[in-house]
């Protein structure tokens, strides 16, 4: 059986794989006849093909593992010896997943991958470290702005009926322009003061937008007890009513409220 399978061009290692040799066809005490061979050939070839696929998977997995180990060593060596102050931010496992390194690691099995082969990928590490540093700086500034907004107090006489979530203002241009200042500029709570100076106006605009959206909704049929064809005078009354809702009871928290004029 082994001789016949090898004559068909199959790898000797695959032919002798346990899934083939333990298939039960090797236990006969009689010589292999041509008729018997024809009856078992298809099944045995299928087993050999499966063994070959598994061998290729194991070989590929080992080659990729060895290449990743070499790349990881080179990345960590760079981080430990580089004069770049941001190199410490690089995580070797994350860097391994970047395109420059994957392109080399995933080269065909028959391509020799040495230390030199990784040089183009290693050359991208300074820029990658700089990007990581920038991301960390921006995240820290964003967190600072969010914390400041959490403790921001709206003046009692300026509390709108429809209060927007203050956390959303961190995405406004006023805050983002400070968050994205160059890394070398130290950003503390004081640097955010110009953005906070604009908050009353931003809050007022957002409150008006919430109110406007509510009015459009309830006059567009969402509130079944309000005629969608309101006279202008009644619409003015509705505008006044919604604008004087208690600040402690934001109407947007009560979508099922019944409105009457």
Description:
This protein has 261 residues and is mostly helical. The chain has twelve helices and no strands. It has helices at 2-7, 12-15, 18-21, 34-81, 92-96, 99-105, 119-122, 125-150, 173-179, 193-197, 199-222, 232-243. Helix 8 (125-150) packs across helix 9. The radius of gyration is 35 Å and the shape is elongated. The protein starts with a helix and ends in an 18-residue tail after the last helix.
- Structural class, by secondary structure, is mainly alpha
Report the span from N to C terminus: 94 Å
Helix amount, in percent? 55-70%
Strand content range: under 5%
Low-confidence stretches: 223-228, 244-261
| Overall form | elongated
Q: Number of helical runs?
A: 12
Q: Major sheet, described briefly? A: none
Instruction: Give, in order, the helices and strands.
Output: HHHHHHHHHHHH
Mean pLDDT: 84
Which assembly state applies to the chains in this document? single chain
List the helices and strands and how they pair.
Elements: H1 2-7, H2 12-15, H3 18-21, H4 34-81, H5 92-96, H6 99-105, H7 119-122, H8 125-150, H9 173-179, H10 193-197, H11 199-222, H12 232-243
Helix pairs in contact: 8-9
Give a brief description:
The chain is mainly α and 261 residues long. The chain is built from twelve helices and no strands.
């Amino acid at each position: 059986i082994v001789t016949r399978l090898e004559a068909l061009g199959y790898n000797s290692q695959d032919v002798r794989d346990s899934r083939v040799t333990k298939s039960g066809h090797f236990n006969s005490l009689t010589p292999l006849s041509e008729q018997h061979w024809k009856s078992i050939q298809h099944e045995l070839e299928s087993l050999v093909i499966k063994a070959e696929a598994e061998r290729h998977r194991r070989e590929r997995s080992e080659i990729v593992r060895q290449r990743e180990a070499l790349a990881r060593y080179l990345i960590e060596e760079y981080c430990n010896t580089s004069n770049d102050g941001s190199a410490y931010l690089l995580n070797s496992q994350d860097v391994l997943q970047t395109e420059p390194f994957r392109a080399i690691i995933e080269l065909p099995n028959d391509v020799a991958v040495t230390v030199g082969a990784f040089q183009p990928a290693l050359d991208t590490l300074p820029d990658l470290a700089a990007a990581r540093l920038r991301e960390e700086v921006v995240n820290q500034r964003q967190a600072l702005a969010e914390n400041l907004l959490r403790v921001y107090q709206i003046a009692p006489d300026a509390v709108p009926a429809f209060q927007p979530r203050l956390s959303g203002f961190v995405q406004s241009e006023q805050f983002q322009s400070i968050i994205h200042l160059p890394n070398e500029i130290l950003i503390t709570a004081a640097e955010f003061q110009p953005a906070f100076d604009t908050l009353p106006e931003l809050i007022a605009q957002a409150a008006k937008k919430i109110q406007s959206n509510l009015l459009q909704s309830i006059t567009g049929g969402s509130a079944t007890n309000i005629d969608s064809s309101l006279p202008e005078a009644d619409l003015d009354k509705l505008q006044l009513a919604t604008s004087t809702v208690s600040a402690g009871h934001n109407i947007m928290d009560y979508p099922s409220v019944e409105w009457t004029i």
